[in-house]
Structure formats: structure tokens, C-alpha cells
Amino acid sequence: MATPLLALDSVTKEFGSIRAVDEVTLDIPESEVTAVIGPNGAGKTTLFNLITGRYELTDGQIELRGERIDQLEPQDIVQQGLARSFQITNFFPDLTALENVRLAAQAQRTGLTPGALLQHYDDQSETREAARDVLKRLDLLDIAEEQAGSLAHGQQRHLEIGIALACDPDLLVMDEPTAGMSPDETVETRELVEDLAEDITIVIIEHDMDVVMRVADRLAVIENGSLLTVGPPSVVREDERVQQAYLGGETA
Ligand SMILES: Nc1ncnc2c1ncn2[C@@H]1O[C@H](COP(=O)(O)OP(=O)(O)OP(=O)(O)O)[C@@H](O)[C@H]1O
């Protein structure tokens, strides 16, 4: 069998006496969208924090293309081709949309954090072009010169995706991209995820089951920190344990 793009092996995280993530073993195949779903407090965000290097594992290991990444710093994991878009706003509000994306692109090329780059700011036309390409793909080119902090919520969330895309990832980890969005923004975001999935492997946490069922090739269901099941949406949604754990006995 081909090496999965990302492989989680018995990944465990304890916070004191709480086992937030409990021996999760999961392969993420290339070119697919895997949605991680589960009830509130199941451990999904903690799992993302482990994958992206924000938290240290208590036990287990994580490999990207067969190489261990679980000992690396978050910025080094980004350099390896794994980028994350956040659930909370994560940009410089006083900089323009373009500058935010450009800094991320420059950080990827230099290995410095965007914060460090701000200290010795230097406009490079190459990263400016890359940033414009990203904004174009996100349909944000017309607000390129606007301050990030003044954008509408949906545009800010898309900008965060742009910041992750500027890192040129093979694997994009998305934490609730439609959270707090209007119905129209949610549809736009779903279409954006579908577009990105054409050339990027995606792992997504998403509570909107309509979005999940449309974009995901596979569902991984987490309950109480453990992986309950993983498989195609059509199979997982019929699983009685999933319906009881997550859907309260009703099919979504
Ligand atoms: N930094 C932390 N310190 C202590 N406990 C934590 C920490 N982060 C998460 N937890 C606990 O770990 C468990 C899993 O939380 P987590 O946020 O990963 O769940 P989740 O599935 O992402 O939930 P939600 O869908 O509500 O975002 C919860 O019991 C939570 O209280």
C-alpha cells in the first residue's frame, strides 16, 4: 500500500488526568478530503494542535510522507508542507490583506515567522506576486489593499485560508472554516474547499453536516478522544454507534 501523506500512530494527549486524545491511529491518504467530526469536547481541536505541532504528544507518533514530524516546531512543520487555517482570527489586523498573505509567503521561503519578518520588513516583488495569486484564487483580489481588520467576517476567514495557502501546502488542515458564517458565506466557503481539494489534501473539522457530507471523501469520527470509526460518508452516517454518539440517534 502507498505511504499515506499523513500517518497518526497511537497519538495520545493528556492534560493532567484528562485523556483528550486517546491512542488515535489514522492514515490520511493523499488527494482526499478527510473530515474529523465528533461531539463537543471529543478531542478534535486537540488532535489538530498535535498534528500542527502546537502541542507535544504524550504518546504515539505522527509522520508526514513517512518522516516523523511530532518533534518539530510548528513553523518547521509548515516548512514540511503542512499548513493550518485557524478557527479564530489569526492575522495582523492593521496590515492589508495582501501584506498578510505576502508575509506568510515570505515566511515560508525564509523559515522565519511572520512576526520576526515584520522586524526587518522588506518588500519583495516575488512574494507579492505569489500573494496576489492566492488572493485571486480566493476571489479576494478586490480587497487586497484593505486593512485585514476592517474586512467582513467571511472575508477574514477566507483571508486566513489564504495565509495558510501562501505557505504552499501539500496538506491543509482547516479548523471549522464555516464557523460564524452566514448561509451565503457558508456556501461560498464550501465551494472554496471543493476548489482547493482539486490539488491539495485537506483535513477539516466542520460542524455543519451539510458541508461535511458534500466535501468529505472520508469521515473520521472521534468520541471521548478515541477514533470511533473512519470511512466514506455514506457508510459512516449509517453506523449506529455514530448516530448515537454524534447525531443523537438521527441521521444527519
Ligand atoms: N489546554 C487544555 N488544557 C486542559 N484541558 C484541555 C485543553 N484543551 C482541551 N482540553 C480538554 O480536552 C478535551 C477535548 O477538547 P477539544 O477542544 O480538543 O475538543 P473538540 O472536539 O475540539 O471540541 P469542540 O467541538 O467543542 O471544539 C475537553 O475535555 C477539553 O476540556
Automatic annotation (TrEMBL):
All copies of domain ABC transporter, residue ranges: 6-249
Function of the molecule: Probable component of a branched-chain amino-acid transport system.
Key word Cytoplasm present: no
Keyword ATP-binding assigned: yes
Record-linked Gene3D superfamilies: P-loop containing nucleotide triphosphate hydrolases
GO BP annotations, alphabetical order: amino acid transport
PROSITE patterns: ABC_TRANSPORTER_2
GO cellular component: plasma membrane
MF GO annotations: ATP binding; ATP hydrolysis activity
Pfam family, one: BCA_ABC_TP_C
Protein name, entry field: Probable branched-chain amino acid transport ATP-binding protein LivG
CDD domains hit by this protein: ABC_Mj1267_LivG_branched (cd03219)
Family named by the database record: Belongs to the ABC transporter superfamily.
Keyword annotations of the record: Amino-acid transport, ATP-binding, Nucleotide-binding, Transport
